[in-house]
Design a protein that fits this description.
By secondary structure, this protein is mainly α. It has one domain. It has three helices and no strands. Helix 2 packs across helix 3. The two termini are 31 Å apart.
Amino acid sequence: EDEIGDLLFVAANLARHAKVDPGAALRRANAKFERRFRRMEQLAASDGIDLSQLPLQAQDAYWDRAKAEERQEGTA
């Protein structure tokens, strides 16, 4: 746990050094994750699949599809 805390501290300081607001960067990353995850659920549902019942490898395939769609749309 201490090592993870150290890592987070270093990441926040790196962001500040790069003149990036670490809080804003985290909020943006979280919003992107939530958007992609919702799209994963939609894609799975359209295939008649409950995403929560899939193994991680199959979930990753839906993640990749959601990510590819965002890149095509220019929203990634």
